[in-house]
Specification:
The chain has 101 residues and is an alpha+beta fold. It is built from five helices and three strands. It has a three-stranded antiparallel beta sheet.
């Protein structure tokens, strides 16, 4: 089956697809800490950071930095509505390629 629209190359990278899958599951009104996401995905900090920056550049993710009640620096990540739309379009495109099961 020929697909006219190209795949979203930003999401299509395996590591970024995994990141987006976790964040989309949480939804746009939820966030996850960098440390928790890193642990969940079993990625190195540098690798995860690079992929998050790439997703943030295209406005698929929002990143906020702050401090915990104990004064420890903390980075939180959430999916944006634009990111949700892009991910859902990506999934629909995959379904159109795979066809009904």
């Amino acid at each position: 089956m020929m697909v006219s629209k190209e795949m979203d190359e930003v999401i299509h990278a395996p590591a970024r697809l995994r990141i987006m899958s976790v964040l989309v599951e949480l939804g746009p009104d939820s966030e996850i800490t960098f440390a928790r996401l890193q642990s969940h995905l079993d990625m190195t900090p540098g690798n995860l950071s690079a992929h998050i920056k790439r997703l943030e550049r295209v406005h698929y993710l929002a990143v906020s930095k702050g401090f915990t009640a104990r004064g420890v620096a903390q980075t939180s990540i959430s999916v944006t509505l634009e990111g949700m739309d892009a991910f859902n379009a990506y999934v629909e495109q995959l379904k159109s390629i795979i066809g009904p099961r």
